[in-house]
Amino acid sequence: MPSYPPSLASSPSRHLSQYSTSSSTLVGGTANPTSTSMSTGASTTTTATLRYPSTRKTIYDRNLNRSRNAELSRASFAYLFMEMVSYAHRRVQGIQDFEKRLNEQGYPLGLKMLDLILYRSSPAGSSSSTSSTSSSGGAAGSNRPLRLLPLLTLLTTKLYPLLFSRPADSLEQSTTNPGEYMIIDNTPLTNQYISVPKEMSQLSVAAYIAGIIEGVCDGAGFECKASAHNTATDVWPNRTVFLIKFEDHVLEREKELERQGVK
Amino acid sequence: MSYYFVIISPADTPLFELTFGTSKAGGDGVPRFRNGETARYMNQFIVHAALDVVEEVQWLSPNMWLKVIDNYAPTNSHISCFLTGTNVRFMLLHQPSAITTASAGSRSSTISSTSIPQNPTSPQTEEAIRQFMNEVFELWVKTLMNPFYTIGKPIKSPVFRQRVVGAGRKWL
Amino acid sequence: MASGQKAARVGEEVWKTRVEKVNAELVTLTYGTIVAQLCTDYDYDYAQVNQQLDKMGYNIGMRLIEDFLAKSNIGRCGNFRDTAEMISKVGFKIFLNVTPTVTNWTADNKQFSLLFDENPLADFVELPDDGRAQDELWFSNILCGVLRGALEMVQMSIEARFVSDVLRGNDVTEMRVTLLRYIEDEMPPDDD
């Protein structure tokens, strides 16, 4: 890549002021070579107050793939999700508010899962090695989605299996609106155990999944709104369409990248 | 070599900062930036300027590992970048130490060694930085999975810091 | 112990053949989301969060017991020791795929501990470094409510609480379960 020294004369447009200016941060942020045992870790920071078991097992010692293929009871998910929904219900007014709340619960999960997906898509991350640092692998081998199709494929073939151990049932583009895509799930897990009262028949608790989808897209830089819609059929009473509406600037960039031949 | 590592959110908020020196070839892990007292602010400035370069290339290459994307000649600083799926930037500024025999103020660019502590652009150095970034990315994902880590907020876990320090010592 | 072995066999059998499965991480992440949301909603008043989690668990327990009895096809337990084995080797096995160790019985056989080697609910969790969470929050407190709710439906009034947690820096995660009394059939269940 061509690089050039930034001119000091040009004022920085970014917010350097966000950096802490306290000297304690600087001390904490500097590897302290005088410490005799760096592996104890606590010596490298002035703010450590967390306690750990004597086995020193922390989340950072746990292999990221350890629970990758682990299973739990579907009923356990259903019970927890039902509590999430009824808790949300007590704190909202109206269906729109309700769905917004469920969407907001899923959204941060989407942001978090995107990097987990990329980690696991990499040669090292997909193995069971304890570290991603084999010489040829590492997440450096994974690709970030740049275009809509790779992103949508990631949703149906990577995100869906991560969550539900199967791909989504189908992916469609709106015929009337080019910025709208639909992911179809005939049997969304969220809807299987929840019977919605009649006065709320429009409510889709799959808004939780829509939030996760929206989080993945936003995180990847494809800003959008994702919503869940009941589209029951005789065969699939819980059939749900996740409607993803991308923002205009995402579609403009898509056209530009297409012109430049970026895949 | 002296290093300044910073994780920067898509909203340009620094989430984690660390300065360290090389531990290779008998290095003591202490950073010795050329610009002394002002190094901290200078490094932040240089890295932030490099974010513009990241923005230029991030939609052209799907790679997460973008290698050296910028440099700043006055302090002989090189900036490598690793981009996560959520467009969080891992920025590493690496600056070779001034040659000890050179008098203060003189900038020597005649470093012949290809070793990691000496040469900021050799293939060995690039590979070492890539390994470092990979290891930090794994730590990053572990941080994300914690339900109490809020996206866009500084990483406060002391264990995370300890492990990044360890990755620096191991690879750089 | 014979009842322990039998319970283990039943638990394995049910888990393998009669439990519909789901990706464990979906459960873990969903639970983490619930706890984090409660912490936000209750402004990090961890005592309140513990209480809410216990309440949620109680609701779950009351529904879950039916599913448990139907799947495991077991009759009424003869004594509280048998109940403990069933909780660990059948209940926890089929709902969380773990079998906490039953131990530390009191002489009157009314109190025991469950020691958790593994706890899928807490798999990715590091508590907030705010100087309070490790002293005040019981991250997995929902499990206490589940036990309380489930056992109440089978005429046992119990108290369950965590006394240590690896998330707090303890070496074990331990839940203490106390039998308060057997509920007479004619009495309505406690309204919480």
TrEMBL record, chain A:
UniProt name for this protein: Trafficking protein particle complex subunit
InterPro entries: NO_sig/Golgi_transp_ligand-bd, TRAPP-I_su5, TRAPP_component
Lineage of source species: Eukaryota, Fungi, Dikarya, Ascomycota, Pezizomycotina
Keyword vocabulary terms for this entry: Endoplasmic reticulum, ER-Golgi transport, Golgi apparatus, Transport
Cell compartments where the protein resides: Endoplasmic reticulum; Golgi apparatus, cis-Golgi network
Composition bias, Low complexity: 1-13, 34-47
CDD domains named in the record: TRAPPC5_Trs31
Residue span of region Disordered: 1-47
PANTHER family (UniProt xref): 41-2 PROTEIN ANTIGEN-RELATED, TRAFFICKING PROTEIN PARTICLE COMPLEX SUBUNIT 5
Protein family membership: Belongs to the TRAPP small subunits family. BET3 subfamily.
Function: Plays a key role in the late stages of endoplasmic reticulum to Golgi traffic.
Any single GO CC term annotated in Swiss-Prot or TrEMBL for this entry: TRAPPI protein complex
The protein's assembly and partners: Part of the multisubunit TRAPP (transport protein particle) complex.
Gene Ontology biological-process annotations: endoplasmic reticulum to Golgi vesicle-mediated transport
Bias type Polar residues, positions: 14-33
From TrEMBL, chain B:
Gene Ontology CC terms, in alphabetical order: cytoplasm
SUPFAM superfamilies registered for this protein in UniProt: SNARE-like
GO biological process entries: endoplasmic reticulum to Golgi vesicle-mediated transport
Pfam name, any one: Sedlin_N
Domain of life of the source: Eukaryota
Disordered: annotated segments: 104-124
InterPro entries named in the record: Longin-like_dom_sf, Sedlin
Protein name in UniProt: Trafficking protein particle complex subunit 2
Organism (species): Capronia epimyces CBS 606.96
Automatic annotation (TrEMBL), chain C:
Transmembrane segment boundaries: none
GO biological process: Golgi vesicle transport; macroautophagy
Location in or out of the cell: Endoplasmic reticulum; Golgi apparatus, cis-Golgi network
Keyword check for NADP: no
GO cellular component: endoplasmic reticulum; Golgi apparatus; TRAPP complex
Main location, first listed in the record: endoplasmic reticulum
Keywords annotated in UniProt: Endoplasmic reticulum, ER-Golgi transport, Golgi apparatus, Transport
Entry-linked SUPFAM superfamilies: Ligand-binding domain in the NO signalling and Golgi transport
Keyword Isomerase: no
Record-linked Gene3D superfamilies: Trafficking protein particle complex subunit 3
InterPro entries: Bet3, NO_sig/Golgi_transp_ligand-bd, TRAPP_component
Domain of life: Eukaryota
Pfam families linked: TRAPP
PANTHER family xrefs: TRAFFICKING PROTEIN PARTICLE COMPLEX SUBUNIT 3 (PTHR13048)
Membership in a protein family: Belongs to the TRAPP small subunits family. BET3 subfamily.
The protein's name: Trafficking protein particle complex subunit BET3
Organism from which the protein derives: Capronia epimyces CBS 606.96
